[in-house]
Amino acid sequence: MIAQTIQLALAPVFVLVAIGNILNLLSSRLGRVVDRARHLQERHTATEGPDHDEVVAEIRMIDQRIKLITRAIRVMVTCGLVIGATVAVLFLEELIGFSLQRVAAALFLLAVGLLMWALVLFLRETQVAAQQLRIPRIYLEL
Questions:
Q1: pTM of the entire structure?
Q2: Residue 58 belongs to a domain
């Protein structure tokens, strides 16, 4: 029976691996955004006029991106914890001999919902990044 439980626990564990990969991606993006924020903070006091306004506008977008990424990371970590709880419930069920299938199913559905929420936050962050990186029309020489 324990072999069956191990097989049953494989699906959530594969989701846990995917969560780890997404967390790696999010933390890399966060690192790059924080580096850019530090660079802009240095430029903030050294600029005036329209250049200063551009720096401030970019700092505001960077701040929004940092908030979205950290929220996505928080939700993704919570998702990973719920996946871990799902696996624990599957093994606990085997050990105590009491049916916890509905609890495991509810935890897994919660984890999927959290995963989707984190991915929506990530999508929103990429939209803000794309908006921030738009090339001004003056440089396109249209």
A1: 0.86
A2: yes
